Structure formats: C-alpha cells, structure tokens
C-alpha cells in the first residue's frame, strides 16, 4: 500500500473528513515519526510494532559490477519489530488465503 492509497482508503472510510484533511493528518504523522526517529527516539504502536534506530558498523563490501572491494562507512538503519497482534493476523491470513503469492 502506498501513502496515496492509504489516504484514499481513509478518506473513503471517513466521508465526513475532507481528503485534504486526511492527507494533512497522514503527512503530519509521518513527519512526527520521522523526526522522532531522527532525534534518537523510538516509536511503539501497541499491537502493530515498534520502530527504532540501530547503528551499523563500518565494514568492507564490494562493488557488484566490478567485484572491487570498497570501504562502507558506519551508518544508522531503521529497524522494525512487528507486534504480536500483527504477526498473528498475518499468519492467520496466510491460512485463510493460501493462494497468496509468497513474498
């Protein structure tokens, strides 16, 4: 699902809200979450999961085209850990819809 699909789905489910207001709410939510993670915070949405930042150490990698070894600097990466409710719903949906294409 893309951000525009999410906005459209919420605008349809909440017809009393203007589409522009739904878009503003989604954009504000994403901005707040991004800012919180960028400043070292953690995000936890009960039943859905949690987002945190992890630091990846510097390492040696390689250029896949040339095979040349390159030094990769340390960096921060976003980590998502799904909540129990999300894991159970996803696993249960695989039982209900067995023909869903494997990811």
Automatic annotation (TrEMBL):
Keywords: DNA-binding
Gene3D superfamilies xrefs: IHF-like DNA-binding proteins
Record-linked CDD domains: IHF_B (cd13836)
NCBIfam families tied to this protein: PRK00199.1
Family to which the UniProt record says this protein belongs: Belongs to the bacterial histone-like protein family.
Protein name: Integration host factor subunit beta
Naturally occurring in which organism (per UniProt): Methylomonas albis
